Amino acid sequence: MSQQYETVVGLEIHVQLNTASKAFCRDRNHFGDEPNTNVSAISLALPGTLPMINRSQVISAIKLGVALDCEIDKSSSFDRKNYCYPDLPKGYQITQDAKPICIGGKFTFKTGETYKTINLHHIHMEEDAGKSIHDIHDDKTCLDYNRAGTPLLEVVTEPEFRSGQEVSDFINAFQILIRYLEISDANMEEGSLRCDCNVSVRSKGELKLGTRAEIKNVNSKKFAKQAIEFEAKRQWTILQKGGKVKQETRLFNTANGETYAMRKKEDALDYRYFPDPDLQTIILADQFIENIKLSIDHLPWEANSMLVNDYKVAKKTAETLSADKTLVQLFIYLNIKVDDATLVSNFIANQYISIDKTIQQDKLESTLNSFAEMLTLIKNKELSASTAYKQLIDFILKNPEANIRKEAENKQILINANDDNFEEACKEILNQFPDKVKAYKAGKKGLMGFFMGQFMKNGPKGINPKDVQECFEKLLTL
Ligand code: ADP
Ligand code: MG
Questions:
Q1: Which protein residues touch ligand 1 with a CB less than 6 Å away?
Q2: Which terminus of the chain faces fewer neighbouring Cβ atoms within 10 Å, N or C?
Q3: How remote is the C-alpha of 169 from its chain's centroid?
């Protein structure tokens, strides 16, 4: 009988920062520019050039550190990690080895229906390498040094993940946090967020960690999950046969869902780390750190609890909204005008999310104000929500400046407060279909849809469907 095994994963997450310039010089830091156009002598570390610390990188590191409950080291420093590779023009990478800027910390995220907290080892600042491009020529590799020197934060977790699913859920929540802090777009496809997954296995109940393999540069949540699941099975199969797992660096083949060996894992010694003699120790004043703390408006979990506790938004809806800071801001903006948190949050979660790409950005404010007007009419029961969404959303997107009440009048969808004779119409429909009424009363509750359909076709227009349904329900219990 085969024993149960446990998967153990620790992550090294690279966040590419959205600072205006590179980590140690003034070259533009921008994805997608013409290759090799943002490459000065300093990016190439030509003799005689000197690097300079980028204040924005330090601020981003502290922001993330504060959000993740890390201890901020008030005197951290840079080291050189030496290795030879075509995309590393300096011959070394500037990183923080001995004294990283953030120590410890933790992050809590939702996985399945529960919450899990992962402890962090540290966060350090470093610079990215250039990019080797292998798929332009069959027999040549092209090099783009635009990325060389891009500022990165590397977050190193403790080996506390127990499945690929947990890792995927963690990355998702982490991405949301990074976007709240506005320090990176955290886009995995473009490489602004990359993950190395360290994977080992052990028998269930065993405390000692197994030998790990490191899967480099996984660039999607789905691939992280697949790669970890494959790798754990592979290692366990080796152990079951009495073999040993090799400590090595592996890559994930997205085409067949398997990992394969890239190289034997280097030890720290191979990199000959030493303090970078060109850069000073980063001394941080308490007030500097305090100001950064104050500059963070709210974090995802704070936004979520504000929506649930202060505004009484439904839990699921609050989760959807708080996954994106701009949706939370939109909620606050609309709710000041409409003053109905349930209506506004449902509108955002169920309607707005699928149309926000089609809003004319130069007309954003008038578009939002028109939405607020529409929602106010719904709130005051002058419009039914479903009719309004069907008939007015597209109109508003195309005519953000139009008068919404007028348009609703033109479309004859305003509910006339005096028009309470719709009960007669309901009665008439029930009289027309006595068999269906009998079946409904015998338990075929699905027939409500049929009665509602009849009303929509033949009854008076512009009545709130909820009221119609209530009316039918009342009549059918008589
Ligand atoms: P490096 O990879 O640079 O040698 P570390 O040895 O500190 O650095 O480990 C880096 C990552 O590997 C961390 O995320 C850590 O949690 C994870 N890790 C270390 N040992 C194991 C293990 N046995 N199984 C799974 N993950 C591990
Ligand atoms: Mg590593």
A1: 8-12, 156-159, 198-200, 209-210, 212, 214
A2: N
A3: 10
